[in-house]
Amino acid sequence: MRTLLIRVVLAFGLAVFGAAAGCETNTAPIPDAPAQSADGSFASNNPTDCLPPIMLTDQYGKTISLASLKGKLVLIDFIYTSCATACPVLTSRFAQIARELGGELGSKITIVSITLDPEHDHPPQLLEYAKTHEASRDGWLLLTGKPDDIDAVLRLYRIKRERESDGTITHVATSFLIGPNGKQLRMYDAMEVATATVVADIERALAKG
């Protein structure tokens, strides 16, 4: 199965970093974190509130407002449960991060995985995916919703759902670290970034308070 990793958001970030260094941002930088690392971690200049009051549904069938996640850090990616290639890799990386976070997961940071296939990914599918991919943890939400609502969320992250000519869903290889105010702090090439780099970014953001 041919897959194509979306770099839309990542490409936008690279363009920003290639421009003047004095470009203003509405997100507070993480102290001591480089604007761009060698392994796929980038500062974000997206000023959008990425945790608005859009209602989605978690893997247990509970309705969740994204706005309710504010107050903690949020680490977010985009997957779909029928994927047998990139998505399990992305989820396994998040699972490693979750293990390294220990008790901070849930208490200080929430992991969120949003489906790119809301037409087929309903709570039972998300719950089974969580159980079989080490994502069944307190503090880790797998979210679905109405296709229009999913698309509205994706637009906040400058992502668009697309399909290949054979009908397979195009993967999104970008993940994001969101601050307690709903603004992006970091974005990652999720297939390349070292999990230790993400954990270090999280720890710096937590230390900042």
What does this structure look like?
By secondary structure, the chain is α/β, with parallel strands linked by helices. The protein has one domain (5-15, 33-208): Glutaredoxin (3-Layer(aba) Sandwich), CATH 3.40.30.10. The protein has six helices and ten strands. It has helices at 8-18, 86-101, 104-107, 123-132, 147-156, 195-208; strands at 5-6, 41-43, 55-57, 63-65, 73-79, 109-115, 140-143, 171-172, 174-178, 184-189. It is globular.
- Specify the helix fraction band: 25-40%
User: Structural class given helices, strands, pairing?
Assistant: alpha/beta
Question: Beta-strand percentage?
Answer: 15-25%
Distance between the termini: 44 Å
Quaternary form: single chain
Written as H for each helix and E for each strand, in order along the chain, the element string is EHEEEEHHEHEHEEEH
CATH superfamily: Glutaredoxin
Top CATH class: Alpha Beta
Number of strands: 10
Strand order of the largest sheet: 2-10-9-5-6-7
Number of helices: 6
Number of domains: 1
- The averaged pLDDT comes out at 84
The CATH topology annotation reads as Glutaredoxin
Largest sheet: 6 strands, mixed
Morphology call: globular
Model regions low in confidence, pLDDT < 50 over at least 5 residues = 1-33
